[in-house]
Structure to design on (357 residues):
């Protein structure tokens, strides 16, 4: 091939490069062209090996021709590669422009309320709607309020029902929220509607259903002509609303010195739906609402005339209700700093602390 033919061949190769480059769809295709045209075995690269075929006085010129062509092809490929890189980057940032930095960020949920707190708030709202006010009382109580004024004198066998933490100052950790019944009657007189959510303490051996620290909600309604149907209607409203479905109730006689008659209201077990499970001890029922008509002696202790007023009272087991509602089978996890029950309130769509109230 003389120099003229060589120049023509080089021209053809360069035209092929230009055509191939305009067809190249992406950066990788450009890289493949580079190897194909410039590599040792490539179209242009292999010409170098043929310099030897030329007479020595022409080799310098042939070398220059080929090297110049190589330089141009290299530059053309690099130019196209840069162009394709730009197109690729623009496409990537175009899809990123769906992001609008002016929109408020998506809030990560920060946490959730404890199941007992969640149910307490719910119970408070239900009773506030029914015209009850929410009171609280001291956790360190006197024997008078916790027992005597509630018709449980020192010698009464009912004291054995509530193993008590006695304090060295002669007081005790309240075993129930019932003492606040007396405090509320003293403070407000009759008629009266209060609930008292709060912590109670008993000297219990811990197991899946017993804790030494648990929550109750005491309720007290005193007015003229209050009777058991008022109490049952209230129980049905309360439990149905907390469980967000109609519940079945079972009413049994019960004994508590501060009410006469005393009643136990049971609810169909929400864990097994009444079929019988470990939580309801195979009975299908769960005791949730011990209650009754306020004993005349208790009204008198609270400064209310039992000939003029009657009332009902109840002591809702809040901890047990929370366990039922959220399917928590072991009471001990609730006070143990265990995070799993918190997931329960989130799963059930309970409002988060920040957005509640
Ligand atoms: N204080 C009782 C307890 O802790 C529960 C209770 C029962 C409260 C009957 C009441 C009531 O107000 O009327 O076991």
């Amino acid at each position: 091939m003389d120099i003229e033919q060589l120049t023509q061949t080089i021209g053809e190769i360069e035209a092929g490069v230009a055509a191939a480059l305009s067809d190249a769809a992406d950066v990788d295709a450009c890289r493949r062209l580079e190897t194909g045209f410039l590599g040792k075995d490539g179209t242009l690269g292999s010409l170098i090996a043929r310099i030897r075929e030329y007479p020595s006085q022409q080799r310098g010129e042939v070398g220059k021709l080929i090297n110049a062509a190589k330089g141009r092809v290299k530059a053309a490929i690099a130019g196209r590669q840069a162009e394709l890189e730009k197109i690729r980057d623009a496409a990537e940032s175009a899809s990123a422009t769906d992001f609008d930095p002016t929109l408020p960020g998506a809030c990560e949920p920060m946490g959730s309320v404890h199941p007992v707190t969640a149910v307490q708030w719910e119970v408070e709202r239900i009773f506030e709607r029914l015209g009850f006010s929410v009171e609280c009382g001291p956790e360190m109580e006197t024997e008078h309020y916790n027992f005597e004024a509630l018709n449980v004198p020192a010698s009464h066998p009912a004291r054995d029902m509530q193993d008590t933490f006695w304090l060295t100052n002669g007081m005790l950790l309240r075993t129930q929220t019932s003492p606040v019944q007396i405090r509320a009657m003293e403070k407000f007189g009759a008629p009266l509607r209060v609930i008292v959510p709060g912590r109670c303490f008993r000297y219990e051996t811990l197991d899946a259903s017993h804790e030494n620290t648990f929550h109750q909600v005491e309720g007290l309604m005193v007015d003229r002509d209050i009777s058991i149907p008022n109490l049952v209607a209230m129980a049905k409203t309360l439990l149905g609303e907390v469980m967000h479905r109609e519940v079945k109730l079972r009413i049994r006689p019960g004994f508590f010195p501060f009410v006469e008659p005393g009643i136990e209201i049971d609810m169909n077990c929400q864990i097994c739906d009444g079929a019988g499970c470990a939580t309801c001890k195979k009975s299908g029922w769960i005791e949730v609402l011990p209650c009754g008509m306020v004993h005349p002696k208790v009204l008198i202790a609270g400064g209310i005339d039992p000939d003029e007023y009657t009332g009902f009272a109840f002591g809702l087991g809040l901890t047990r209700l929370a366990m039922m509602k959220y399917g928590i089978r072991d009471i001990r996890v609730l006070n143990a700093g265990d995070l799993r029950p918190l997931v329960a309130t989130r799963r059930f769509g309970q409002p988060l602390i920040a957005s509640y109230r």
Remarks:
- Confidence is low (pLDDT under 50) at residues 351-357.
- The beta strands are 133-134, 140-141, 172-173, 192-201, 213-223, 249-254, 259-268, 285-294, 310-317.
